[in-house]
Amino acid sequence: METRHILLYVLGVTTGLLIPSFVKFLFPRVLNRFSRPQVDRSSIYGLDHGRLHVDVSQLPMWMNMGYWKVSPLDEEAKGQSRPAKNLAEASQSLLLEVLRTAGFDKKPHRTENEAPYTTPPGPVRRKKRVLLDVGFGCGDQSQFLLDNAALQRGEEVSNAFFPFDVYIGVTKDPIQHRFASSRLDRYAKHKTNEGFELPRYQLLCADASEQSKWEKQLDQDILSDDASEERYVLALDCMYHFAPSRWGAVASFSQSFKATTIMGFDLCLTDDVSLFNRAILWVLTTLMRAPWANFGTNLEYEAKLQEVGYEDITIRDVSEQVFTPLAEFLEQQDHELRMIGYGLGPLNIARWVFGWWGRTGTVRGIIFVARHKAHKPSALAAEHRRSSL
């Protein structure tokens, strides 16, 4: 009898270890098998030549879930919005929504009561502002941020949308790092030739959660002592991948990097997830390489931010403008790509996942901004403060 119990225990442990690997191996292949473009044998050429007109050198490489409602930057058109036309627009819109929630906007010369992070007119006397962008992708996000901080020589810093002096990007993906570095260097050379002054920037290939390692790659004089700097961390649609969880990195950003503000887009669970949906989500997070420890409710998310020293916390649930519109875009994109012999391939998994999140509400997409108490919130941040899921 004792031997039988031992065998059952060994079988249970072995099954538990093998199931995630089996799911990761089989599920993408089954889905990909049913999503291959159908070939019409009656056509000699079909539409395959459409591939010859794809200009790869000009392709945008934005990659986040996107905020699928675009609002203009200018104040005169404030309140107007339209659906995003493509992933690049939606991805840029998500970044802008994060910056707006943090209190940045396009209108220069605001008073301190309107937006404390916009430099008022007159002589510029402020702390050096440093932006740490973790998981920056293929360079489009970096270029957008640098472009909005770029100034014509002699121009007042208050005219910048998001003025900062130093940009540090960190990604652990070596392929994306090489691609982004090449793209950003070409961009910087072009802007300099046009008479613009860019913030100083450096892109690092490292694990953002291991500050002691990526700091060693920094140029020696790129950072000053933290007392003379305002340090911001931007984490746009990436921290749910951090292992073993995001919270070690967030603690490092707060306590070691001394970030006055951390902001970004992330994922949470709704408060009442059924056991069945939890089981499905556990499988999906395994496929996404997203540790299960990163999935808690928004209240747990806020409590974790407080634990590492942040006291002024804004959380906005933006799920309605993210998951379902993204799934619909992926479906349309798959249809159009099939016409020229392509298709989404493995990305069909993502299409199904985002659609399921949108239908069930199991996972929520949030924009978060967290500041230390000494850093006052903006009027916009107060308006959106602690939206419940």
**What is the domain total for the residues?**
1
Catalogue the unreliable spans.
7-11, 106-124, 376-389
Give the overall pLDDT as a whole number.
Answer: 81
List the secondary-structure elements in sequence, H or E: HEEHEHEEHEEHEHEHHEHHEH
Q: What is the quaternary state of this protein? A: single chain
User: Helix tally?
Assistant: 11
Specify the structural class.
alpha/beta
CATH topology: Rossmann fold
Layout of helices and strands:
Layout: H1 2-34, E1 69-70, E2 82-83, H2 87-101, E3 128-134, H3 140-149, E4 151-152, E5 166-171, H4 174-193, E6 196-197, E7 200-205, H5 211-214, E8 229-236, H6 247-255, E9 261-269, H7 275-288, H8 298-307, E10 312-317, H9 323-338, H10 347-360, E11 363-371, H11 379-383
Parallel strand pairs: 3-5, 3-8, 5-7, 8-9
Antiparallel strand pairs: 1-2, 4-6, 9-11, 10-11
Helix pairs in contact: 9-10
Protein name: S-adenosyl-L-methionine-dependent methyltransferase
Keywords: Membrane, Transmembrane, Transmembrane helix
Transmembrane segments: 6-27
